[in-house]
Amino acid sequence: MPRTIVKTHAIVLHTMRMGETSSLVTLYAQECGKLKAMARGARKPKSRFGAALGLMTEVQAVCYVKETRDLQTLSECTLLKPAPDLSQSLERLSFGSAACELVDRLTIEGENNPRLYQCLSGVLHGLAEVEPEQVESLFWYFQLRAAAALGYRPELRQCITCQRELVGPSSWFSAALGGGLCSVCGPGNGVRLAQRSLRFLAVLQGLRTYSKEALPQAPAQRGEIRMALRGFLEYHGGEHSRLRSLDFLDGLNRAALPA
Ligand SMILES: [Zn+2]
């Protein structure tokens, strides 16, 4: 079986130590989707990969790819954009990790999705720029965009069952049915989600860019939005899609709740 050389822009999603000096790197590539590759010698002091294999960095990668093999070989990796500076808060850093984890868990190797690549690149750099009160909204926006790029955009303006416009004070949301439900169809079929939360998500879904200027501030009742979006993505991602980075954030949020 001949091997192919792939040269592509990619974002580093995950790295893991392999043996004494190598790393197993998971990349999300603009040209070919998720790619797992062995970077031999990456942890040697004078490695040719240098700082290019840090989490969330954007790189130009050259890989030797063999279709019969699960693990490919990373031949070269040049830094294009350093990882965004998220050191200003643990929350920003955790959302950045969660975005990488989400792309890792919701994709399979070799499926090209340039839209998803753009979403990931957008949220990582957006997280370094938005105001503190916009951070979680930006992550929700990313979740909605990622769901759409993966082919399961939730319906947020009309009842998913009867197509009535969602205007009443009470509404429901169902991950399995794929969106909002009205007060007639909702009971027994979804979880309660305040109309304000649903409208807010619909506004986010309609945004065209990750810009700080366009992003609205999150409403007060964040918990139910958090749960609805997370449940939606985990449902569609299947059994391996539990997002551990979000477990960590949920723990922080619980700790921050007033007694
Ligand atoms: Zn309905």
Question: Which superfamily, in CATH terms, is the homologous superfamily of the largest domain?
Answer: Recombination protein O, C-terminal domain
Q: Rounded to an integer, what's the Rg over CA atoms?
A: 20 Å
Report the β-strand fraction as a percent range.
15-25%
Number of helices: 6
The CATH architecture name of the largest domain reads Up-down Bundle
Q: In which order are the strands of the major sheet placed?
A: 1-2-3-5-4
Count of structural domains: 2
Overall CATH class of the largest domain: Mainly Alpha
Shape: elongated
Q: Which stretches are poorly predicted, pLDDT < 50 over at least 5 residues?
A: none
What would you note in describing this structure?
It is a single chain. This protein has 259 residues and is an alpha+beta fold. It has 2 domains: 4-81, Nucleic acid-binding proteins (OB fold (Dihydrolipoamide Acetyltransferase, E2P)); 91-256, Recombination protein O, C-terminal domain (de novo design (two linked rop proteins)), CATH 1.20.1440.120. The protein has helices spanning 90-106, 114-127, 135-149, 195-206, 222-237, 244-256; strands at 4-18, 22-29, 33-39, 58-65, 72-81, 170-174, 179-181, 191-194. It has a 5-stranded mixed beta barrel. It has a 3-stranded antiparallel β-sheet with strand order 7-6-8. A hairpin with a 3-residue loop joins strand 2 (22-29) and strand 3. Helix 1 (90-106) packs antiparallel against helix 2 and helix 2 packs antiparallel against helix 3 (135-149). The mean pLDDT is 89. The structure holds zinc ion. Zinc ion is lined by residues 159, 161-162, 164, 181-182, 184-185. Zinc ion (ZN) binds next to loops.
